[in-house]
Input
Amino acid sequence: MRALNTTFTHIRRSPYQALAASLVMFLTFFAISVFAIIVIGLSQITRYYESIPQVSAFFKDSATQEEIDSLITQIESKSEVEGVEFISKKEAVQIYLGMFSDDPIMTELVSEDRLPASIDVSTVSIDALEPVALDLQKSEIVDKVEFMRDIIGPLRSVTQGIRTSGLVIIGFLVIVSLAINALIISFKISQKKQEIEIMKLLSATNWYIRWPFLLEGIFYCSIGALFGWLLASGLLIYFTPQIQQFLSSIPVFPLSYSFLIALLIAEFIVAVILGSISSFLAVLRYLK
Output
């Protein structure tokens, strides 16, 4: 209790230093929160596409219905194929019009002659996509084949790139935060040098003197973590409707509140560790 009272006394007596330390920690933990939300979102998008393995084959205009039916029967007989859905030229136009219903210019450009008939082939696993796609490409009536690997590959690359660059940025911010926090605590210790000497003469132990400074560093980090998390979570909740509209049918957002609470708890744990390390480095130097 004595250590807590002393800690808050230190903070009240130097509010600008406390504000500077808290702001640096706020920026660090805001970056951590945003990074975590982005990575989780991209990971869920990737898992969504991996959960619906599908190959789309577009037919040439010269393909007859008999040839298409024969190919469908051939593909359905494969053990790795879960189902085949035929989309006629007319159905393709209706799908296109539904996608661009708000854009009259785009809808005027389309007709049954412009859009090909196609089939969507669902496979039992993502590993079966390529063999099925290769079989479809061999058919003389197939003009073009697309499958989810063309989406999943870039998504994985983007997720990995963001994860790597985010870790580098956060690592840099953490180092800067540790240095600034240690610098501020060191400055406060140097200001109280005479007071510390008197306490030592009165037989105060090193840990008795250290605890208020350690708690002060933890306080700055914890406040930064709380407000960084609050801002990131608030922005996420505010923009969730727009994100959902953009992602259409992909069920990624809103993220569960349990995830956000778990993120806050994790950030508080990191804050305590960072605050302890930076403060301990400062007191270790001045209070040996």
Remarks:
- The chain has two domains: 2-49+153-286, 53-147.
- The beta strands are 54-59, 81-87, 118-123, 142-147.
- The chain is about 75% helix and 10% strand.
